[in-house]
Amino acid sequence: MPCRHLFRVCSLGMFFLLAACAAQDTQVVDSTFSTQAEGPAYAYGQGPVVLIDESHHNFHTAEGRYKPFAELLRSDGYVVQSLSAGFTPQALSQGRILVIANALSEKNVNDWSLPNYPAFTPDEISAVRKWVAGGGALLLIADHMPMPAAAKALAAAFGVEFENGYAIRTGFESPRPPIVFSRENGTLRNHGISNGRRVTEKINAVATFTGHAFKAEGAFAPLLVFGPATEQLYPEEPAVFTERTPRVDIEGWYQGIALSFGGGRVAVFGEAAMFSAQTLGEERRPMGMNAPIAQENAQFALNTLHWLSGILD
Could you say which residues form the signal peptide (predicted)? Predict the structure, then answer.
């Protein structure tokens, strides 16, 4: 969950929210978080090459807010590299797995208000689609507005319908608590990613931090499915919610799915902080894999990469 605005309450009781922090520059990497994988999948530096996109004004990059994620993968044996070039067949051929986290159009880098524009060209989308069909693996992550609009056309190429809003729990005043998807309440579904390779990798609960809810069609496997008392809000300005802000019930919508596409695989998530380890504000409040409520998120991230790599089903 990127943070860019203050949370305020006006005298009429209307909420102006960005859950959890006062400014983007207070959302920083938690350098104290342990990124050591237990029982690495590969010898150090001998695993598949993972390309983390940084060519589309990404809010999360390998040496930025996704550094803990990158280091976690490296400890599991993956070779993690930043991809600073656009998506061409030549650029994509350098890796086995492509991670895109919170891409943005250049037009929205400094202004997240509507209209929100696509981050990828039609040629780039075609290149990624063909690369996945030929055996590549894509981890596509788009947080709340404006990120879903930036990646909407790319998601659609794989049968996924991104929605340019904010997914929240109802019944709470801001800042609202994370959403927990669990086996117990049926919102974390049975899949290779949630089961892992062995009993110690089995996931019982995953926490997410706002993000958005999306739909999908065709053959796919649900991973994170919204339960009751959840809704999506569609503001015109980022994190500005009023009693007139359009909203819909999102029970049954998704915040995580997996699918096969030709000879390749795709995992899609509607929230980015779940794979980060960050702190917020002067209080250094944890958000991501380092949050007490998200103790299994790191293993869930590794399981996702293991499934994309083809070492679990």
Answer: 1-22
